[in-house]
Prior knowledge:
Elements: H1 2-12, H2 16-22, E1 25-30, E2 59-62, E3 72-74, E4 79-85, E5 91-92, E6 103-107, E7 112-117, E8 131-132, E9 137-140, E10 145-146, E11 152-160, E12 168-170, E13 172-175
Amino acid sequence: MAERIIAAVEKFGNTSETVWHAFGYSAWEYGTPIMPRAGEKVRFWSDSPSHVGSFRHARDIITPDSLVKPLLIMAPQTGRVICLVQEHDVFGDGPDFSGYTNYITVQVGQSEFYEICHIGKGSVRVGVGDIVHKGEQIALTGANGWMTDRRHVHFMVARWKNRERTLFESLRIRFSGVGF
């Protein structure tokens, strides 16, 4: 393992972000964007038909039905909002509904960002360019986009693969304070 780490440092430089990314992990530790209710634990779906290719390390966090009672979404890490969509309330089972997904994208490092999908229509408290701080409320859960089950929030950490920021690959998320 030490040889692999040395090779990664030589190839990518001696920054923690590039070394963690070389091994497919997030450079920062993240909190969960959903705070469980008293007495509950954070739970994840075991698989999803949409988590393939660039999205393969995304996680779906199980939530109560947002149409009955939305939950707060908190910033899992500090960063700058770079993209925001929050006008949709249409959802359905299948990729035809992907274009109706509400989401927020936050840049964390030079090439690392996170994205939270299925946020409530009009519920975001910040705008593009704003800094969000870990633990700050940023939205509410919602039902929109491609949802085989509307009781979840999609959470992905990824890194840009090119300077134009058009290609990315998801990373294995290093969670802080969550036992696996």
